[in-house]
Amino acid sequence: MKSEATDKNLDWLRVVTKERWELMAECRDYFLHHPDSDPREYPRLNPIIAASWARSQAAGLHIDKNIPEQFVSPQQLKKIQQRDAVLLKIAHDVFEPFRNLINLTGYRLYLFDKDGVMLFTQGRQEKNNRWFSGKPGKICREDTVGTCSHVLSMRYLEPIQLLSVEQYGAVFENMIGTAAPICDADGNIHATVVLNQRIASLVLTDNYRETCAHTLGLVASMAEAIELQYRLVKTSQRLCQSNIAQQRASEALSVMLNLLDDGILSIDGHGNITNLNKMARQLLSIGDKEKLTGVNIAEFTDDAPRLYKALAAGNQEVMELDMGRRQTRTNCQVVIYPAKTSGAILKINRMKNINASMSRRVGSQSPYNFNDIIGESSLIKRTLELGKRFAVIDEAVLICGESGTGKELLAQAIHNASGRQGPFVALNCAALPRDLIESELFGYESGSFTGADKNGRPGKIELANEGTLFLDEIGDMPLELQPVFLRVLENKEVIRIGGRQSRKVDFRIVAATNRDLQQMQLQGLFRSDLYFRLSVLTLQLPPLRQRGTDIVLLAKFFIGKYCRKIGVKEKKLTVEAEEWLCSYPWPGNVRQLENAMIYAANVAAGDSIDIHCFPESIQREKLPAQPVHEQTDVTPRNEWITLADWEKQAIRHALERTSGNVTQAALQLKISKATIYKKMREYQIHPSRN
């Protein structure tokens, strides 16, 4: 049965993310409203979940209703418990150390046999929830309770964690189930360990996601510990129970520590290493069979005095140290947890892993590829062809285009096609105050300024190590920072604010702008050397008004995407609406088009969208031209028209089309904001009156 699932599909069921929650909630909502549909045909639904939903549906179970409980008879339960007496004893001993923790958190542990019969449970009783009745003998198979964590864990012989929206019955609402299999010596399923935890909100915080990950590791460790002891008892009846319990605890602890991605080691009061897990051996380059007798932590860092000082203080502390053998040391984060008597526990992790994790937390995601960019016009095809060629060239890329044309989407596609293994880290130079851009870009050491993090913080450049740094609105980077950033680009080394040590960083720069950088560098508003360094490879994203029928393609895509999101039938554009879309100038480009289609999909009463469904703010652009007022200075046809007259008319017309937005008007006229303000003062033009 394990061959039915791919490793990719199983990995998807082991990581709790907000995106996974939202996707499953969307699929579940669609299934509720379309009970006759086959979930296996949902394009984005995980195949393992889809197949289980389909089997649960075929068994006559309703996804949105409480499912009546089924139990074996008392006589049958007694026989099963006698059969599995050894397993029950081992499970009880493994569960017992966690009793107080389970009661405190409101979680509940279960042990099921190979037929899905509940053998044993531990945890606080929760009222008004039949699932938490805690009554042994309950039958929990796929045909009696539907999709749940232990059903799939038994089927695929893998640890699995399911969200409430993935599990089948309404009884699992707001509950995350985590299960791991217990197999016999032949690899056949013998039982499962299950931990159910309530989630109070649909908003998954970083802490809660980390808790879920730890829960999965805990349940897997429990199952492995039970499985190990069960095999030992079966193969060696001569061992006494106390030795078995001691061995079980030791093996369980070892399994739990080796499941962690962090290096964990303990040291005594003299700094001698007493124990460490597998990851710590890898980080410090200590062989699996290498003995630790007399091995001191000072052998693995050049900054031992600083480490000893922190240990002597007896406080929990976080620091950055180069750790490992002398020839293989790497920059690490070391967290010191003092022991109650003497010595300490150290948690070690590579800084590049910490930085990558931090990049994910701050939202630096890159889900888009070149195939996700919609367009058939020659202009966009030419841009995408160049983008694909530039992606594999490890040089700076400058993406030029008006606001809303999709510059960041193209940057993500370039990153994903580049083959770089590091993260995609984005920074908008126009979205931060000038004083904050420097610390965001270069990072800072502890105590660098008032309000700084006591442990310091890496900047976006460091976070982009082995990946791509995307700087949006590069034209708004403060002039005084540009030479510093240019030096980083040239040397690939960064020094944090308040720091002295440079750090090597391997990153690829992709910048974007909606301004004319060439003109800015001629005017002294942007450094020429930085401009020439950034514009090695330049891509021009065409505005939407120049892309012809791409407008209709994009409009249909946005309408279909939104209709699927809200679970309604996809609405169609009328011929007149399509013609209107192609004739409108779209000053806000693709972003404006998407918002307009969302508005139209909500306004349309039937299955079609016509012109009157579009927002009024853009419908006004298509109204008949109004008669010219007397006060407007229009030169008669039989008189000469001066250049100043043309400029005045062009500026007024641009301000009218952008509802008085000077920045957008400047973009339309392809002049800088400084120039348009100068001309407005010269011609006494006020945006509020135009």
Descriptive report:
The chain is built from 27 helices and 21 strands. The strands form six sheets. The protein has a five-stranded antiparallel sheet with strand order 2-1-5-4-3, sandwiched between helices. Residues 238-242 and 623-640 have low confidence and may be disordered. The termini are far apart. Helix 9 (206-235) packs antiparallel against helix 10 (241-259) and helix 21 crosses helix 23 (589-603). With 690 residues, it is of the alpha/beta class.
Features:
five-stranded antiparallel beta sheet, 21 strands, 690 residues, alpha/beta, single chain
Give a brief description:
By secondary structure, this protein is of the alpha/beta class. Helices cover 42% and strands 15% of the residues. Helix 9 packs antiparallel against helix 10 and helix 26 (662-669) packs across helix 27 (673-683).
Morphology: flat
Q: Count of DSSP helices? A: 27
Q: Quick one: biggest sheet?
A: 5 strands, antiparallel
Structural class computed from helices and strand pairing: alpha/beta
Give the strand content: 15-25%
Biggest sheet strand line-up: 2-1-5-4-3
* Share of helix, binned: 40-55%
* Low-pLDDT stretches: 238-242, 623-640
What is the average of the pLDDT values?
81
Report, as a whole number of angstroms, the end-to-end distance: 71 Å
What's the number of extended β-strand segments? 21
Radius of gyration: 32 Å
Topology of this protein?
Elements: H1 7-12, H2 18-33, H3 47-58, H4 74-83, H5 85-95, H6 99-105, E1 108-113, E2 118-123, H7 142-145, H8 149-156, E3 160-162, E4 175-183, E5 189-198, H9 206-235, H10 241-259, E6 263-267, E7 273-276, H11 278-284, H12 304-313, E8 317-323, E9 330-338, E10 344-350, H13 351-361, H14 378-391, E11 397-400, H15 407-418, E12 424-428, H16 434-442, E13 443-444, E14 457-458, H17 460-463, E15 467-472, H18 482-491, E16 493-494, E17 503-504, E18 507-513, H19 517-522, H20 528-534, E19 537-540, H21 550-566, E20 572-573, H22 575-583, H23 589-603, E21 608-609, H24 616-619, H25 643-657, H26 662-669, H27 673-683
Parallel strand pairs: 11-18, 11-19, 12-15, 15-18, 20-21
Antiparallel strand pairs: 1-2, 1-5, 3-4, 4-5, 6-7, 6-10, 8-9, 9-10, 13-14, 16-17
